[in-house]
Amino acid sequence: MDERDLQIGHMSEKLCGIKDGQHLVETLRAIDITVPRSSDGRKTWHRERWTICRLLATLAEGSRLSYPLSLVKGERPDFVLDMTIRKVGVEVSEAIPQGYQKYVHKAEKLGRKVFHIPNSVAFGKPIRQSEIQRMLDEKSSNAWVGDESERAWAEFLIGLIDHKLKKLSSKEFSVYESNWLSIYDNMPWPIDFEDAVAALSGSLQGYWTRSPRFDAVFIEHGGEWIACISPDGSQLLSLSTVAVK
Known about the structure:
Distance between the termini: 28 Å
Number of helices: 7
Number of domains: 1
């Protein structure tokens, strides 16, 4: 049994047979979702545990779940949320470009507290070493004009969502009655989140006709909000204080 199986399996055992919202909140409050720094050995399962627990706490406080429920560890997707009347496959992802974690790791080793973003960000396009060095030299990013940063953020998220939709369509991926994509936006974009979500929601109109599809996309941003985007539109949910650790 690998480390992910052990840690996520242990969490799933605690989140089995949850009777109601209060029971879920109390159980989540007792789960350690600490994510170590990149330079201190952060693993993928740390991010998965962090993201799913904060999402569940927020949905519980908004009375958006059915009970009894259990969270089951999976692979493709990462989790299955069994709410008796329906099962929801939940795929978890982190919205950072390839190579950004390498930059964060080096910056943390240098004792940095503020992180820059690349001058050019595109999903699937690795950050060049010269760009990593520029950020390490603490040279600020190019100034964004108007809604450039919101549009760039939306385009990056579209790339990530499209990538996950292709995985959802593969034979290795289990598709359930409902399928969610939960994204942790872990880069300090200089955006108005509400405007950025509106731009993303508008750009996703054609995605809802696909089959299979994600029935909802959740995006956590800035430690304050989780955006919910679905065929019905978009909504900002206030991040549960239970989940803020």
